[in-house]
Amino acid sequence: MWWSFDFMQWAFSAVLIITPVLALLGTFVIRHHLTFFSDIVGHSSLTGIAIGMALGLAQPTPAMIGLALVLAILVSLLQKWSRSSVDMSLGVLFSLMTSLGVVLLSRGGGFSKFTAYLIGDILTITPDQLFPMFIVGVCVVVLWVALHNAIVLISINPLLARSRRIPVFWVEVGLTSMLAVMVTLSVQWVGVLVVNSLLILPAATARPWAKNARQYAVFSVFLGLTSGVIGLIGSFYWGSATGATIALVGSFFFALSLLLRVVI
Amino acid sequence: MMNRTCRHLSTTLDKVTVSLSGKVVLKDISLQIACGDLLAIIGPNGAGKTTLLRAILGEIPFQGTIKFEALGERIRKPLIGYVPQQVSIEKGTPTSVEDLLVMAIGGSPFSLLWRPMTRRQVIEALDRVQAGHLLKERLCDLSGGELQRVLLAAAITPLPDLLLLDEPVSGVDPHGLALFYELVNELRQKRHLSIIIVTHDLAGIAPHADRMVLMKESILAEGTAEEVLRDEVLIRTFGPKLLNVATLLEAKK
């Protein structure tokens, strides 16, 4: 039985914390068109590791979070100051950050030891990692609730939000920063390639079925949890990479939802 | 024109000038909106009408002063209701009418922890604009007229000191149009709300407006609707079809 292994119990606990939090954040990402941004942050974590190493830090996490916050503020400013779409600027930023990270880390040929960050391994999570993960999760949920009204109003019309005395710019900085930190931390747990799937898939699947904001959040969290648990247990029996299996189950739900929409 | 005894808000703009990226968009706009006045702002596209509303909302930096007063006393941060120009809501966006109202009132997120007070306020607000039946609908499923009424309900709950309407009726069917003007008129008469409305619908707004301003970067003409609509500058800006509107207005009287 999968449950009889310690590492599976830790991984199961981690899934119960990470997937609902990412799914909840995903509703904001989709409302605010931040899919590309979260992808950039995920890929930039490699650059963050490189910067951490260059600074001689024992642990790369502070450097990764620092870089993520810089990116969050940069993108908020871009959105504030540029009149046209920021899509192109984001594309440039994506290329820059990703290539910079890979170049720095591959110098001297030692890149293979960083591939863990690409694929991630939730099965290596230890009990002492669970508590900080839980605290981060609680913080994100509290912030999510606090920012919810402001963010939905801004996504309807920024000027309307402004007339309700919402500090639009600062709320957006808060949103991108929260997202950046959560994505960066999740990269260490599930890997760059999977974090965006866990963020986007549940909310994207829930969206057409939700009649209001409450249902959107509830459906999204439910889908995140379900794909997380099925993916984890599935990967144990199939011997596949856990993060990717979770993402695949999420994609399956999305396809199923799409099919149901066509049939109904 | 200015009524000192009115306990509601009057707004004074003095030489408001706005430059965006080095280009002057608004120049020396001086205006007074007395308590309970309905001011219609008209002008061609790109005349800076929306920019003027953004300046009043405090969203962009400007030179000059914008002063709010009630009972002769200055008010720093008045509550301003705002109905935006053509809100486009993506198909399938999971935001209901109920969500919008709760958020605008400042209730707890996504109506999870509704206090009965908020609930009553939401239902009252929607009834006021004849949209009570839309409570559970998604915003993206509403018609143009319905959405404008719901946004109006959000803008006037709680009752603001000043109401700004930015082309609120573009893309609204004739029935929705009549209903919208009726509601705005009622707000003004019953609640003595000052209202600034930016519009292209000259014929629709003319019977309701106390004053009208024609602008293009600066103010070109100002006066009653009849005066402005007969103005030569306006006829040159908008074309002679305006004369018909003016004649129609007189015929109505």
Blueprint of the fold:
The complex is a heterodimer of chains A (264) and B (253).
Chain A lengths: L5 H26 L3 H20 L6 H21 L5 H20 L8 H5 L7 H30 L1 H6 L4 H23 L1 H15 L6 H26 L3 H22 L1
Chain B lengths: L8 E12 L2 E11 L4 E5 L6 H8 L6 E8 L2 E2 L5 E4 L13 H9 L10 H13 L15 H12 L6 E5 L7 H18 L2 E5 L3 H4 L5 E6 L1 E6 L1 H5 L2 H7 L2 H12 L1
Parallel strand pairs in B: 3-8, 3-9, 6-7, 7-8
Antiparallel strand pairs in B: 1-2, 1-4, 4-5, 9-10
Helix pairs in contact in B: 2-3, 2-4, 4-5
Model description:
The complex is a heterodimer of chains A (264) and B (253). With 264 residues, chain A is mostly helical. Chain A contains eleven helices and no strands. In chain A, helix 1 packs antiparallel against helix 10. Chain A is globular. The mean pLDDT of chain A is 89. Chain B is an alpha/beta fold and 253 residues long. Helix content of chain B is 35%, strand content 25%. Chain B contains nine helices and ten strands. Chain B has helices at residues 49-56, 97-105, 116-128, 144-155, 174-191, 202-205, 225-229, 232-238, 241-252; strands spanning 9-20, 23-33, 38-42, 63-70, 73-74, 80-83, 162-166, 194-198, 211-216, 218-223. In chain B, a hairpin with a 1-residue loop joins strand 9 (211-216) and strand 10. In chain B, helix 4 packs parallel to helix 5. The relative contact order of chain B is 0.17. Chains A and B meet through helix 6, helix 7 and helix 10 of A and strand 6, helix 2 and helix 4 of B.
Give the key terms.
heterodimer; A: 264 residues; mainly alpha; ABC transporter involved in vitamin B12 uptake, BtuC; B: alpha/beta; six-stranded mixed β-sheet; four-stranded antiparallel β-sheet; 9 helices; globular; disordered N terminus
Largest sheet report of chain A: none
Uncertain spans of chain A? none
- Let me know the CATH homologous superfamily of chain A: ABC transporter involved in vitamin B12 uptake, BtuC
Portion of residues in helices of chain B?
25-40%
Gyration radius of chain A, rounded: 18 Å
| Straight-line distance between termini of chain B | 23 Å
Count of helical regions of chain A: 11
Overall spatial form of chain A = globular
Number of distinct helices of chain B: 9
CATH topology of chain A: ABC transporter involved in vitamin B12 uptake, BtuC
Q: Which sequence of SSEs, written as H and E, runs from N to C of chain A?
A: HHHHHHHHHHH
Instruction: Identify the strand order in the major beta sheet of chain B.
Output: 6-7-8-3-9-10
- Provide the residue-averaged pLDDT of chain B: 80
How is the quaternary structure best described?
Answer: heterodimer
What is the CATH-assigned architecture of chain A? Answer: Orthogonal Bundle
- Overall outline of chain B: globular
Low-confidence segments of chain B? 1-5
Please provide the ordered H/E string of secondary-structure elements of chain B. Answer: EEEHEEEHHHEHEHEEHHH
